[in-house]
Structure formats: C-alpha cells, structure tokens
Amino acid sequence: MNANVRLILMGLVAAGAVAGTVYLYSSTWVFDQNLELCKNGSGQAKIDACTQVIASGKANNDELADAYSNRGIAYSSQEKFDRAQPDYEAATRLAPDNFAFLSGRAGNEIELGRYPQAIKDFDVVIARKPNAYFYNGRCWARAVWGRELDKALADCNRSLKLSPSYDAAFDSRALVYYRLGQYDKAVGDDSQVLSDNPDLAPSLYIRGLARLRLGNLKDGNADIAAAKKADPKIAETYGAYGVTP
After folding, report:
1. Is residue 171 part of a domain?
2. Does the N terminus or the C terminus of the chain have fewer Cβ atoms within 10 A?
3. How far apart are CA 102 and CA 93, in angstroms?
4. Which distant-in-sequence residues (6+ apart) come within 8 Å of 164 by Cβ?
5. What's residue 9's pLDDT?
6. CA 222 – CA 115 distance, rounded (Å)
7. Which domain, by its residues, includes 214?
C-alpha cells in the first residue's frame, strides 16, 4: 500500500474515533442537561426536557420514574390533569414504594374528581408513613368529595396534632366544618390561616360563605370579594366541589 494512502486511511480512522468521542460526550451532555431541567425547570421547558429523558433510553429506573413524576407535576401545574395522570401512573409503576409519587398521583386524582382512588392512595401512604401532610391530603380528598366527613375531620385533627401550626390542615378542616354546618368553627379555622396568609383565596372564600350562613353579610361579602380578587376562578373551583353561596 502506498505510504500516502496509508497515512490518509490512518487519518480517516483517527478522525472517526475523535468524532465518535465528540458524539458520545455531546450525547451524554445533552442527556445530563435534560435531566437537570426535568428536575429543576418549569413550564413547557420542563415538560420537553422530561420527554427527552424518557425517550432517550439512557435513564436508569430511578431517573425514568423521576422524569415521569416531574412531567406529571408540570402538567398538573398547567391544570392539564388528564395528561398528568398517565405520568403519575408510570412513575408509581416504576417506583411503587415512593411516597411522593403516590401522594402526587392522589393529588391529581382529586383534581380529576376520582376521590375514592385518591383516598386509597393516601391509605397506602399513611399505613407506611403517617405524617401531617398525608393525613391532610386524605382529609382534603374527603372534604372536597363531601362524603365521609367524620373521617375527614378525624384526619385533619390527626394532621394538626402532628403539626399544630399547619395552615393547610386548618384550611381543609374549615371546609369540613362548613359542609357539616359548623360555620363558626369554619370561620375560626380559616381566620387562623388568614392570620398568616391574608390573601389566600380558598380560606377567604370559605370564611366568606360561612359568615354569610351565620348572617354576617357585610364581612361575608367582603371576604368573597377579596377571594375573587385574589383568584378570579375561586367560585368556579369550589362550585365544582358543590360548594356555592
């Protein structure tokens, strides 16, 4: 073989090896970047990055489960709950003992009106890791469902026993009290929440409705107006739960 030809062939082989290395590093870098954005990004960029991680074939089981869960969270934040649900399902199949994935699926099920399924998910989580957050989640599922309110109240009380200043549990219990017709207690719980978060629309709205039921029209209407200012869709949200003035 001519020496020049040999040198040319050797150069081509070397170039190919370098190109392969560059491609390998480039591919790995893109995957790592998508992994980071899937974990810590937001909005459509997060969704796109998680989709790339899922489709890459490079993710291990934990990374794949995280990617599905994170994409579900991103869809939920956009109120695309139907699109989020399959991702939560995939995440829990890959990591059935992950409490965060189970509670995430339960929260999405509440938004879809699948209250019994949400309660079952919280049952599983609470049996393994009872804490204030999960007790409140199960309380909230029953509160918006409007059924098994005695069990809802017990769960909210357990949540507050474990975390006495947990505003989310006070807010959930206020809705339970409202549905039970204990309007003075609903006002008390939401007033507790609003002392820390004065512009929180759900607490303003339920306190306003409770005050109307108690005959306090001035303060009740003021609360409802403030709630609608903070969240123009608040009446629609609670109307879907069957809670109306």
Report:
1. yes
2. N
3. 10
4. none
5. 36
6. 32
7. 132-245
Name residues of the chain where pLDDT drops below 50. 1-25
Domain assignment of residue 18, yes or no = no
Instruction: Return the amino acid letter for 88.
Output: Y
DSSP designation for 163: S
Rounded to whole angstroms, the Cα distance separating 191 from 143 reads 18
Which residue bears the tokens 């989640």? 137
Write out the two tokens for 4.
């020049």
The CATH number covering residue 232 comes to 1.25.40.10
The span from the CA of 49 to the CA of 45, in Å, is 6
pLDDT of amino acid 26: 65
Q: What's the pLDDT at 71?
A: 95
* Helix boundaries (H) for the chain: 3-40, 43-56, 61-77, 81-94, 99-111, 115-128, 132-145, 149-162, 167-180, 183-196, 201-213, 217-230, 234-240
Looking up tokens 């995440």 gives 91
pTM of the model: 0.82
Question: Is residue 12 exposed (0-12), middle (13-18) or buried (19+ Cβ within 10 Å)?
Answer: exposed
pLDDT given for residue 52 in this prediction: 92
Examine residue 29 and state whether it is found in any structural domain, yes or no: no
Predicted local confidence at residue 18, as pLDDT: 44
Q: Extract the tokens encoding 28.
A: 């790995």
Both structure tokens of 220:
């009740």
pLDDT at res. 25: 47
Nearest-CA neighbor of 108 among 118, 98, 116, 99? 118
Cα 140 off chain centre by: 13
- Specify the number of domains making up the chain: 1
